């Protein structure tokens, strides 16, 4: 975990309720950022179970079969994610609705992903809440559920109800939740791992991950990992004073420019250590360190292990 993160790290228990016809894309965009957060932090920040209404496997819209870890009726946790996707109206029977109403007593937060909002609304669990759904269904959703304040947003967080409009928005939502739970620095690392260009897309759940000139500063840092700039040079390039940049970065990322820059360079070094056969000396140069021993010291301080030890298979 980034050294500057000061957020609680007790694992959050997440149930992912799947139905036949669920979207592989939506599922991947939901759980892969959580997996990445665990990997990058070196800790189990999130664990999840795939659930179904019955005990039988569920089959995605593209034919992927998933054997659930358990049933909705026997599950509980911090967050339930409801993911029907295609053919969602066929899943609105009494068993589903009764199961969702019961789950609302066992989960702290309920989330409707893609068309999951429809099932939550049908169960009466979105009454009086602001909510969204896949935009192709928004008009019908608005007409069918007048007691829900339906909005055209990528995702909406309204108290203990979260709704999301589709697969790409699911990634944005999970990234936002990681930043909210564990700090924007870790969310930034997850976004960089997936090579997203913009993690602060429009939504109604709160401010974006970073402000304009912090994003610009991060871009400048990414472009100069091999030949690092001074913090003063970075500030000049984004049109802010060094102090102003430091204040804003500390407020938004929980760390100053020098710490963030060092972490970005060390993340690159870690990636090269684990994914290439480059020598430690070569990796040091790519990460902006003239001396391999300096990289090794910084690497061990940040990650608790030397580059060489990380590369050596454990017996």
Automatic annotation (TrEMBL):
Residue span(s) of domain HTH araC/xylS-type: 215-313
Coiled-coil portions: none
Keyword Transcription (UniProt): yes
Gene3D superfamilies: 3.40.50.880, Homeodomain-like
Keyword field: DNA-binding, Transcription, Transcription regulation
Alphabetical list of SMART domains matching this protein: HTH_ARAC
Protein name: Helix-turn-helix domain-containing protein
Species in which this protein is naturally found: Ruegeria haliotis
Lineage, uppermost ranks: Bacteria, Pseudomonadati, Pseudomonadota, Alphaproteobacteria, Rhodobacterales
């Amino acid at each position: 975990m980034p050294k500057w993160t000061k957020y609680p790290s007790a694992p959050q228990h997440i149930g992912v309720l799947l139905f036949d016809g669920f979207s592989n894309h939506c599922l991947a965009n939901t759980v892969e950022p959580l997996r990445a957060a665990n990997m990058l932090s070196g800790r189990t920040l999130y664990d999840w179970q795939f659930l179904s209404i019955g005990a039988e496997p569920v089959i995605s819209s593209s034919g992927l079969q998933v054997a659930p870890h358990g049933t909705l009726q026997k599950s509980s946790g911090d967050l339930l994610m409801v993911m029907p996707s295609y053919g969602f109206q066929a899943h609105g029977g009494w068993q589903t609705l009764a199961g969702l109403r019961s789950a609302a007593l066992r989960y702290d937060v309920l989330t409707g992903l893609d068309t999951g909002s429809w099932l939550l609304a049908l169960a009466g669990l979105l009454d009086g809440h602001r909510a969204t759904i896949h935009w192709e269904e928004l008009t019908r959703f608005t007409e069918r559920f007048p007691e829900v304040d339906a909005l055209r947003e990528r995702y909406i967080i309204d108290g203990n109800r979260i709704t999301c409009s589709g697969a790409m928005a699911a990634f944005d939502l999970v990234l936002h939740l990681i930043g909210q739970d564990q700090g924007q620095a870790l969310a930034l690392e997850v976004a960089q791992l997936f090579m997203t260009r913009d993690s602060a897309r429009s939504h109604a759940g709160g401010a974006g991950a970073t402000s304009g000139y912090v994003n610009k500063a991060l871009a400048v840092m990414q472009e100069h990992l091999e030949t690092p700039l001074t913090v003063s040079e970075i500030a000049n390039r984004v049109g802010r004073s060094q102090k102003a940049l430091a204040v804003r970065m500390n407020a938004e990322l929980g760390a100053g420019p020098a710490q963030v820059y060092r972490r970005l360079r060390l993340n690159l070094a870690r990636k090269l250590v684990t994914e290439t056969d480059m020598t430690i000396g070569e990796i040091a140069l790519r990460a902006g360190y003239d001396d391999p021993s300096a990289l090794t010291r910084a690497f061990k301080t940040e990650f608790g292990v030397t580059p060489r030890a990380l590369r050596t298979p454990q017996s």
